[in-house]
């Protein structure tokens, strides 16, 4: 990659993405060859917001490269509770680690943190902003199952606050992908993502109903609609119910449809889909390991 | 036309006249330039003055201070039609238009309350200037041209 950090999917070129995905495929094919690759290196995990799979998969990825991790632990027991700024925290922690992974509830946190550190920094989610390492594993999964060019993808759910959606949509502009966005009116893509998609000349269509587009999709990427985005429970139930899928929904879909979800899901994908060939979300989650190994390998190997 | 209308605000001997400011933006112009009268310069402000070009316009005159191009370029975000006249001994010796800068810092506060630039961090707000608005360098929120004045951070 051209840059030292991974902050936003909008900074990634097709070459950057393919370099990570190709390396991930090499790792998948022969993980043993990478077992001691970064022995002696330490990855700092700074999670200012709860995370299970992202934190664990970065931890696991670093250890599978022969390295170690240091974890800030929960915010409640850290110096952040004493009022330390994020800028100070990352400047201290960079002294303990060769690279940092940051998750933070404020949009733009990773961009700011990267201004204060010299070690590579990965944005593992900044509020409703970006989540680019998730996007790399999403793209890896899409490439394995449907291919990244000549792709028709539907992205459904909370498009306004869904950081995985923002990153994925921007990254897909590097490929020959036709993107359909399916959401309630109130949760449409934010202005800045829409701006970037139009600026890149991407084919973008927006829908409020999945039926309008389901038969033509190669991939359906489902995201969770959160209760807290709605003023009251009734409104939430009414809206969320329209964006849930089950095996009956899929009667209208192509036999080859790949269904993805960044997880955790609540009830937007019925368990009766889990055993079908469409269900790819657990494979997608597992791809977090080779893809994050590949990302760390590339960032830690750069001459800086 | 200007001669007659400019008489509504007294002429200055030396300094800067910022003319053709969008009506209603004169006080924002002063705020952006950090001119609040405390440093002693004489400042005249005309608001809603008739204008051939704008219908109504505001005009700002600052005695004893020549504003540089980089100082006034940020005004292009709220007063894109503004012209800058440098006056010496009652004569306009230089007349310039405001030019859109590529970026602005510490002028606009990000309207996204959850943006890191609104947290208690040691950074300034910073925006990249687009053709029809500005974009936060931190959270990427886009502020449209017509929303800039409402988000000025100049106090």
Relevant terms:
heterodimer; A: 304 residues; alpha/beta; Rossmann fold; five-stranded parallel β-sheet; four-stranded parallel β-sheet; 35% helix; B: 155 residues; alpha+beta; Alpha-Beta Plaits; SH3 type barrels; 2 domains; five-stranded antiparallel β-sheet; four-stranded antiparallel β-sheet; 4 helices; 9 strands
Model description:
The complex is a heterodimer of chains A (304) and B (155). Chain A is an alpha/beta fold. Chain A is built from 10 helices and 9 strands. In chain A, β5, α6 and β6 form a beta-alpha-beta unit. Chain A is globular. Chain B is an alpha+beta fold and 155 residues long. Chain B contains 4 helices and 9 strands; from the N terminus they run αβαββαββββββα. In chain B, the strands form 2 sheets. Chain B has a 5-stranded antiparallel β-sheet with strand order 2-3-1-4-5. In chain B, β7 and β8 form a beta hairpin. Classes of the chains: A alpha/beta (304), B alpha+beta (155). At the A-B interface, α4 and α7 of A face loops of B.
Radius of gyration based on Cα positions of chain B: 16 Å
Q: How many E strands of chain A?
A: 9
Q: Largest sheet of chain A, order of strands side by side?
A: 7-6-5-8-9
Going by CATH, the architecture of the largest domain in chain A would be 3-Layer(aba) Sandwich
Helix content of chain A: 25-40%
Structural class determined from secondary elements of chain A = alpha/beta
Output the number of helix runs of chain A: 10
Order of helices and strands of chain A: HEHEHEHEHEHEHEEHEHH
CATH homologous superfamily caption of the largest domain in chain A: Aspartate/ornithine carbamoyltransferase
Major β-sheet annotation of chain B: 5 strands, antiparallel
- Report the strand count of chain B: 9
> How are the strands ordered across the major sheet of chain B?
2-3-1-4-5
Query: Count of DSSP helices of chain B?
Result: 4
Distance between the termini of chain A: 12 Å
> How much strand of chain B?
25-35%
**Can you say what the CATH homologous superfamily of the largest domain in chain B is?**
Aspartate carbamoyltransferase regulatory subunit, N-terminal domain
CATH class of the largest domain in chain B: Alpha Beta
């Amino acid at each position: 990659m051209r840059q030292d950090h991974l902050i936003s999917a909008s900074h990634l070129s097709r070459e950057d993405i393919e370099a990570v995905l190709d390396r991930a495929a090499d790792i998948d094919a022969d993980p043993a060859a990478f077992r001691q690759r970064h022995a002696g290196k330490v990855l700092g995990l700074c999670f200012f917001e709860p995370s299970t799979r992202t934190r664990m998969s970065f931890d696991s990825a670093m250890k599978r490269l022969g390295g170690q991790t240091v974890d800030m632990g929960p915010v409640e027991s850290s110096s952040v509770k004493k009022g330390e700024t994020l800028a100070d925290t990352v400047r201290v922690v960079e002294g303990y680690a060769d690279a940092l992974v940051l998750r933070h509830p404020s949009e733009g946190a990773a961009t700011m943190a990267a201004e204060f550190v010299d070690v590579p920094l990965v944005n593992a989610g900044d509020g409703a902003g970006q989540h680019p390492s998730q996007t790399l594993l999403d793209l890896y999964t899409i490439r394995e199952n449907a291919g990244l060019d000549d792709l028709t993808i539907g992205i459904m759910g909370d498009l306004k606050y869904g950081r995985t959606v923002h990153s994925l949509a921007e990254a897909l502009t590097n490929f020959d992908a036709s993107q359909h966005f399916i959401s309630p009116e109130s949760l449409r893509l934010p202005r800045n993502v829409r701006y970037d998609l139009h600026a890149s000349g991407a084919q973008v269509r927006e829908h409020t109903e999945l039926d309008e587009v389901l038969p033509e999709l190669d991939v359906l990427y489902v995201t969770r609609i959160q209760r807290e985005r709605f003023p009251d429970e009734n409104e939430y139930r009414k809206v969320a119910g329209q964006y849930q899928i089950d095996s009956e929904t899929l009667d209208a879909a192509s036999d080859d449809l790949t269904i993805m979800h960044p997880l955790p899901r609540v009830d937007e994908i019925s368990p009766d889909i889990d055993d079908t060939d469409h269900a790819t979300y657990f494979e997608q989650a597992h791809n977090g390991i080779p893809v994050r190994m590949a990302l760390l390998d590339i960032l830690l190997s750069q001459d800086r | 036309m200007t001669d007659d209308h400019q008489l509504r605000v007294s002429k200055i001997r030396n300094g800067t006249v910022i003319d053709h400011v969008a009506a209603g933006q004169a006080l924002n112009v002063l705020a952006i330039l950090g001119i609040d009268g405390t440093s002693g310069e004489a400042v005249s402000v005309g608001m809603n003055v008739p204008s051939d070009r704008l219908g109504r316009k505001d005009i700002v005159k600052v005695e004893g201070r020549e504003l540089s191009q980089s100082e006034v370029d940020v005004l292009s975000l709220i007063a894109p039609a503004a012209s800058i006249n440098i006056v010496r001994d009652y004569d306009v010796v230089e007349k310039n238009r405001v030019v859109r800068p590529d970026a602005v810092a510490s002028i606009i506060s990000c309207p996204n309350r959850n943006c890191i630039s609104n947290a208690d961090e040691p950074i300034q707000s910073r925006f990249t200037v687009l053709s029809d608005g500005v974009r936060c360098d931190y959270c990427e929120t886009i502020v449209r041209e017509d929303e800039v004045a409402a988000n000025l951070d100049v106090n």
